[in-house]
Amino acid sequence: MSEPALKIADDASASAKREKFVKLAESRTVNAIKAIRIIGKLGNRNAYDYDDADVRKIVKALNDEIEALKNRMKTTKSSDGVDFKL
After folding, report:
1. What is the pTM of this model?
2. Which residues are CB-contacts of 77 (< 8 A; sequence separation ≥ 6)?
3. Cα–Cα distance between 12 and 47 in angstroms, integer?
């Protein structure tokens, strides 16, 4: 394949990957926001009994996942890999 044709193919592939990312990112983010809002409904003290420690545990778990998300988005390194050096 000639160089200009290769460039067009690479652009089309990048465009398709971008479209797929945007579609999935929007859908998954909406679903995550909805799930967080559902958890927030547990704040109804008339319906549920909980204490501050319970709230801290929930918030910590969610924050830990947000931090893990940030780290995964910053690096291209696979999280399934094993890093080993002597």
Report:
1. 0.70
2. none
3. 53
